[in-house]
Structures are given as structure tokens and as C-alpha cells.
Design goal:
By secondary structure, the protein is α+β, with helices and mostly antiparallel strands. It contains four helices and six strands, in the order E-E-E-H-E-H-H-E-E-H. The strands form two sheets. The chain has a four-stranded mixed beta sheet with strand order 4-3-5-6, with helices on one face. It has a two-stranded antiparallel ribbon with strand order 1-2.
């Protein structure tokens, strides 16, 4: 089992198999619109634009579990991300990333990285082209701090 075995719901309501991203390096991030870390969306978008042509994708998963910092509808979240941070990377519908109701994808990510729960918004998982987890980064790790990890994963 790996990340490619999961299917998620895109912002447009369509089911999207993560198998569609096979062969690409991925960064999975749980996002929030009203968090002190929300400006990381800008850095994420810069990385996306810089490396997308090399086979890099960022997948954003809004979550409202941390002090209710993403209370809006999926449409409101997408509009906020696009208008305020120019987000063009794929965003998916809001999910839970911790606790008994956590989405199966996040249950898998947590289990496979030692079982430590998602501590806050903007936890990041770097996934190789084979769907295997390369590395997990904390919420406080800024996007620019993992650029070298992304470059290595792409080469």
C-alpha cells in the first residue's frame, strides 16, 4: 500500500485517484485559511510554479480541526487561496487529519511516519514518484526550507 492507493474528492466534487499522480513527486499539506501559518501558501505556490514542469505536484487538504481556522465552505476556501495567495496547485475538499475521524489517507500518513499525530495546520509529507513517503515535515517548516529535499526527490 502507498499514497497512490487513495482516492480523494477534489474541490469540484469529483473523485480523484491519487494513482493519477504516479511518477510525480508530491507534497501533501493540510492547509487552513485563518492560521498564522497561512502565508506558507505563498511559498508553496512558488515551489509549485518552480518545479511543476519537472514532475512536482502539491496537493492541498483544507482542515478545520485546529482552533477552527478553516471554517468556510470548500468554495470559500478555494476562492480565498486563489485571491490572496494565487494558489494554482490542486486543492481538495475539507477533511479531518487527526483523531478517530481522520481521513484514511492521513491515518496512513501518520501511521507510516511513526504514529505522531498531525500537530497543526501545514504539516507536510514529501512523497516519491512511487507513492512512498520520503519525509515528513512539521507545520513550522517553511516551504523554502524543503526546496533541496524536493530537488533531490525529483532527480
Amino acid at each position: 500500500m502507498n499514497v497512490h492507493d487513495f482516492t480523494m474528492t477534489a474541490m469540484n466534487g469529483q473523485e480523484k485517484s491519487l494513482q493519477d499522480y504516479a511518477g510525480k513527486t508530491l507534497l501533501l499539506v493540510n492547509t487552513a485559511s485563518k492560521c498564522g501559518l497561512t502565508p506558507q501558501l505563498e511559498g508553496l505556490e512558488q515551489l509549485y510554479k518552480k518545479y511543476q514542469q519537472e514532475g512536482f505536484e502539491i496537493l492541498g487538504f483544507p482542515c478545520n480541526q485546529f482552533l477552527r481556522q478553516d471554517p468556510g465552505s470548500n468554495e470559500e476556501i478555494m476562492e480565498f487561496c486563489q485571491l490572496n495567495y494565487g494558489v494554482t496547485f490542486p486543492m481538495f475538499q475539507k477533511i479531518k487529519v487527526k483523531g478517530k475521524e481522520a481521513d484514511p489517507l492521513y491515518q496512513y500518513l501518520v501511521k507510516e511516519t511513526g504514529g505522531k499525530k498531525i500537530e497543526w495546520n501545514f504539516a507536510k509529507f514529501l512523497i516519491g514518484p512511487d507513492g512512498e513517503i520520503i519525509e515528513r515535515f512539521s507545520s513550522r517548516t517553511k516551504p523554502e526550507e524543503i526546496e533541496e529535499n524536493i530537488r533531490q526527490a525529483l532527480s
